[in-house]
Amino acid sequence: MTLPRAFYLRPARVVARGLLGCVLLSRRGRVLTAGRIVETEAYLGPDDAASHAAIRPVAARGLFYGPGGRAYVFRIYGVHHCLNAITGRTGHPGCVLIRALEPIAGTRAMARRRGVAAESVGLTNGPGKLAEALAITLRDNGADLTRGRLVIGRPPGPRGFAVGVGRRVGITRAVDRLLRFWIRGNPYVSRP
């Protein structure tokens, strides 16, 4: 069952932790790929120096300031796509970067797209890797995560895992904020 919009209408930090264990599904034609979210990173509004709401206020304004539950996809280093879930109520920007997935469906298709073995931890253990594996591109920017070809669903079972909390990685601003969350012990986490 897909997460309701109300799930996303909370602060980014709360949503980032809540997304752990949830399932990200991508449909491309007849191909379904999916993975369990095992790592996230919260980005707050304009007061967070690492958030696009602060760095790119004009470019991010439309999506960031609207209601949560939409996809924010951007390209990093001109090569890799990154998927974020917009959070918060209208006028209160925030988002959550989906950093890593544990593949659960369509692993052969993911492996073809990535050019790696289906059993490889490197299949989806980073934001650019999971976007490529699930065929997420800029055309998904603004997609409704509660319905459509790119959605996030409830965890398939009980949340019986320990959560790690630490500094954000791969950025140069506001790195000391404890806004990165992961499922402890999961091999698909990008940085243990």
Architecture overview:
The protein is an alpha+beta fold and 192 residues long. The chain has one domain (5-183): Methylpurine-DNA glycosylase (MPG) (3-methyladenine DNA Glycosylase, Chain A, Roll). The chain is built from 6 helices and 8 strands; from the N terminus they run ααββααβββααβββ. It has helices spanning 5-8, 12-18, 52-55, 57-64, 107-114, 127-133, and strands spanning 23-28, 31-43, 71-76, 80-86, 95-105, 150-153, 163-166, 180-183. The protein is globular, with a radius of gyration of 15 Å. It starts with a helix and ends in a 9-residue tail after the last strand.
Keywords:
3-methyladenine DNA Glycosylase, Chain A, 192 residues, alpha+beta, globular, eight-stranded antiparallel beta sheet, 6 helices
SSE string, helix = H, strand = E?
Answer: HHEEHHEEEHHEEE
- Overall mean pLDDT stands at 87
Indicate the proportion of strand residues.
25-35%
Count of discrete structural domains: 1
Helix proportion: 10-25%
Structural classification: alpha+beta
Termini distance? 30 Å
* CATH topology type: 3-methyladenine DNA Glycosylase, Chain A
The low-pLDDT segments are: none
Q: Count of DSSP helices? A: 6
Task: Compute the number of strand runs.
Answer: 8
Main sheet, how many strands, which sense, barrel? 8 strands, antiparallel
* Fourth-level CATH superfamily: Methylpurine-DNA glycosylase (MPG)
CATH class division: Alpha Beta
Based on the structure given, which CATH architecture is correct? Answer: Roll
Task: Indicate the radius of gyration in whole angstroms.
Answer: 15 Å
Shape: globular
